[in-house]
Amino acid sequence: MSQVGESACWTVWPARRRPALALGAIALIVGFGLASALLAGDWFWGAIVSLVLVLCVGEFYLPSKCQLSEAGILASTPLRDRSMKWSEIRTFVWSPQWAWVSRLGPESKRGWQRASGFTLWFDTPQRAAQCRAMLGQDTLVREQGMNAALEASLPARGGS
Questions:
Q1: What is the DSSP letter of 29?
Q2: Were 122 and a residue from 53, 61, 85, 127 both cysteine, which residue would form a disulfide, CB within 3.0 to 4.6 Å?
Q3: What's the rounded Cα separation, in Å, for the pair 68 and 6?
Q4: For the range 114-120, what are the long-range contacts, defined as Cβ-Cβ under 8 Å and sequence gap of 24 or more?
Q5: Adjacency order of strands within the sheet including 81-85
Q6: Cβ-based neighbour number of residue 51 at 10 Å
Q7: Which CATH code fits 64-153?
Q8: What kind and span of H or E run contains 158?
Q9: Would you say residue 65 has pLDDT above 50?
C-alpha cells in the first residue's frame, strides 16, 4: 500500500459545491411530497414521503469530514460516522468528486451476500487518486466518468 500523507483529512460540503443539484433535489422532494398529499387526500402522507426522501439524501446537504489512515477510511457527518478497513473494501466505484466504498456483508438466509457501504466525498481529484492508490489488489475498482488524461496521471494501485 501507498503511504498516507499528513494531508489525509479534509472536510467537504457536497451541496455547496453543486448548488444546482441541491436545488433540483429539493424541488423533487417538495414535488413528490405535494403529489403524495394530493393523491392520499391528507397532508400527513405528503409529510411522511418528504421526510423519507430527506433522510435518503440528507448527507448530501451536510458537511462531511473524511480521513484516510493506514488502517482505513473514516467518513463523518453530523448524522453518523462510517468507517471501513482497507482489507474490508471489496468494491470501489469512484469519480473525481465521490466514491462508493463497499464490502461484502454476511450471507443471508438464502445464501446471498449483502453489500454494505457508504459514499466518500472528495475535495479534489488528487484526493480521489490518493484514496484509490491505498486499495488492495483484490478490490474491484470501477471509474465513473473518468477522462483519459486524469486516468493516465493516477498512480498504480498498491497491494495489500
A1: H
A2: 127
A3: 10
A4: 115/90, 115/91, 117/84, 117/91, 118/75, 118/82, 118/84, 119/59, 119/75, 120/66, 120/73, 120/75
A5: 9-12, 64-68, 72-76, 81-85
A6: 12
A7: 2.30.29.30
A8: none
A9: yes
Structure confidence by residue, pLDDT tens digits, 102-156: 886 555 566 565 667 888 899 888 888 888 888 877 777 877 665 444 445 444 5
**Contact (Cβ atoms closer than 8 angstroms) between residue 73 and residue 83:** yes
- Identify the bridge partners of residue 73 per DSSP, sorted by sequence position: 68, 84
The whole-model pTM stands at: 0.68
Q: pLDDT value at position 159?
A: 45
Query: Worst-scoring range by mean pLDDT, 30-34, 47-51, 92-96?
Result: 92-96
Instruction: Name the pairing type of β-strands 91-94 and 140-143.
Output: parallel
Answer whether residue 72 shows pLDDT above 70. yes
| Domain map (residue ranges) of the chain | 16-59, 64-153
Cell of 55: 433522510
Q: Hey, what's the cell of 3?
A: 503511504
